[in-house]
Amino acid sequence: MRAEYDFSKAVKNPYASQLKKQITIRLDEESINYFKSISEDVGIPYQSLINLYLRDCAASHRKLNLKWK
Fold first, then answer.
1. Residue 17 pLDDT > 80, yes or no?
2. Which of 4, 11, 16, 29 sits in a 20 to 30 Å window from 68, CA-based?
3. What is the DSSP-derived secondary structure letter of residue 44?
4. What is the pLDDT of residues 55-64, one digit of tens each?
């Protein structure tokens, strides 16, 4: 390895805005188990499966019919 590297001509990653951001989200155990069981069937990690589902909801502007009392 070099002692020093020259980054003066470096270019910012154009895909950086598309990277995933780590957050904390509280899900009930039943929901997690549901996605884990599906993930085992399709061979996709359950967190990626949840992300794909949420992305699909956002892309189609799907909204819940929900009213808080």
1. no
2. 29
3. S
4. 999 999 998 8
Q: Is 21 left (phi over 0), alpha (psi -120 to 50) or beta?
A: beta
User: Which one, of 48, 23, 21, 22, lies nearest residue 36 by Cα?
Assistant: 48
The answer to pTM > 0.85 is: no
Ranges of each domain in the chain: 29-61
What is the rounded CA–CA span in Å between residue 2 and residue 15?
27
Cβ distance 27 to 16 under 8 Å? no
Whether residue 49 contacts residue 35, with contact meaning beta carbons closer than 8 Å, is answered with: yes
Residues 15-32 as b or e (16 or more Cβ within 10 Å = b): eeeeeeeeeeeeeeeeee
